[in-house]
Amino acid sequence: MKARVLWVEKSKFLGESGSGHTLVMDGAPENGGENLGPRPMEALLVGMGGCTAYDVVHILKKGRHDIRGCELVLEAERAETDPKVFTRIHIRYLVSGKGLTDAVVKRAVDLSAEKYCSASIMLGKTAEITHDYEIVEV
Q: What Gene3D superfamilies does the entry give (predicted)?
């Protein structure tokens, strides 16, 4: 896997993924940025959310469960001093579908957290990661 990051101006950077997709990252106005994109650490948190959401959806689909939606809300705390690593991350999964049981959703979330989500397992080296989920019948 490869990526490129190009400094554009002020606190603005363009990140390009190996698959050719571009992400604008920018700093807060009080730090010389123009607020034109997420901060790099926000992008990291969103990436972790995408990684685990992908796992949960894939696991449920592979098990032939009728999943219709998956939304994650992530909340993170960072260290007060440099390096300001994530110290705590909580993930709330809102999983919707027909006939989803507590057991199958819990299994999918646990498998992602413990085995498949490289991003959350890596971030778990510095942060306490917790999760919960809610099942919405549609």
A: 2.20.25.10, 3.30.300.20
Angstrom distances, CA of residue 45 to CA of 21, 74, 91, 116: 18, 8, 10, 17
- Listed as ranges, residues in the chain with pLDDT below 70 are none
Instruction: Domain 1-37: give its CATH code.
Output: 2.20.25
pLDDT given at position 97: 98
- pTM metric for this prediction: 0.94
CATH architecture group of domain 40-137: 2-Layer Sandwich (3.30)
In the chain, which residues fall in CATH 3.30.300.20? 40-137
Strands annotated E in the chain:
3-9, 12-17, 22-25, 66-78, 86-98, 128-137
Domain with CATH 2.20.25 in the chain: 1-37
pLDDT of residue 75: 98
How far, in Å, CA of 74 to CA of 76, rounded? 7
Q: Decide: residue 58, CB within 10 A, 0-12 exposed, 13-18 middle, 19+ buried.
A: middle
Q: Output the pLDDT for position 122.
A: 98
